[in-house]
What we know:
The protein has helices spanning about 20-25, 30-40, 110-120, 150-165, 235-245, 265-275, 305-320, and strands spanning about 1-10, 40-45, 45-50, 60-65, 85, 90-95, 145-150, 170-175, 185-190, 200, 210-220, 225-230, 280-290, 295-300. It has about 325 residues and is of the alpha+beta class. The chain has three domains: about 1-70, Structural Genomics Hypothetical 15.5 Kd Protein In mrcA-pckA Intergenic Region, Chain A (Roll), CATH 3.10.290.10; about 70-165, Pseudouridine synthase, CATH 3.30.2350.10; about 170-285 and about 305-320, 2-Layer Sandwich (Pseudouridine synthase), CATH 3.30.2350.
Amino acid sequence: xxxxxxLRVEKEVSGARLDVxxxxxxxxxxxxxxxxxxxxxxxxxxxERRPSFRLxxxxxxxxxxxxxxxxxxxxxxxxPLDILxxxxxxxxxxxxxxxxxxxxxxxxxxxxxxxLIARYTDISGVxxxxxxxxVHRIDKLTSGVMVVARDxxxxxxxARAFKEHEHERVYQAVCYGHMNKQTGRIETLMGRHPVDRKxxxxxxxxxxQAITDWKVLAQWHQVSLVELSLLTGRTHQIRVHLxxxxxxxxxxxxYGGKKRANSITDPAIRSYVKSVGRQMLHAYKLGIVHPSTxxxxxxxxxxxxxxxxxxxxxxxxxxx
Length: 320
């Protein structure tokens, strides 16, 4: 059975390659998007195009996903993983930006789950069939620390703890502008955007409570480095909240951080931000209670090279 997905090209992504656009909008790699395009399963304003076709604002992209092509069982796919900790109950991984957490439309084998199955065959029967071991997620274009359950009892324990917001989840983000104080809290409702259902919004009448605490770590001429603690865990919570208060995450393609790049006065930094390809957001620290021992454990991962390079460039600008 084929499923049709329709995507509208907004102003901030005008000029993007078709394959890149699909990889950003849907849970699939750029190569998977290119394969769909070459098969004729993607139309732009009802016409077939090449993966390199440049989109314009207002165009409609139609994607046909053949569900019969998706396997009943998940495939093992050997991808390199940065494992921070492992035992018989849990695995803690530093997920790179660009890696989708679990299989979905158009990407059935090059995800974190497929890589975990290749390395840890025992997680196949843990939790949900299509996302074994997964008790929480990080956006495709966000990097950082995740915990995965390796045992059914551990899965139940961790899933409940995440539902009750008992774990400590701390992020670091480079965002636009300067905060008006050193620390603060953002508290809103959050739900699906009333028009663009792929996005989230706090401008809703009915939604779920979303709370983010923040503090400033560093400030430069036009941007800041902030640390953010999630007291709840809503989809895109940090990205929406920072956008709400006028400080979107740098290079965020969905919540205003990408189109602000032209306001950066330093040409080298402006060029780098436009080329980086993902929001400057990293899940820096995860604190959990071990599901078997009851021990409090804390895992950290330093910001990846793309964020580190931006911070170094900002430091260099400030010293000039």
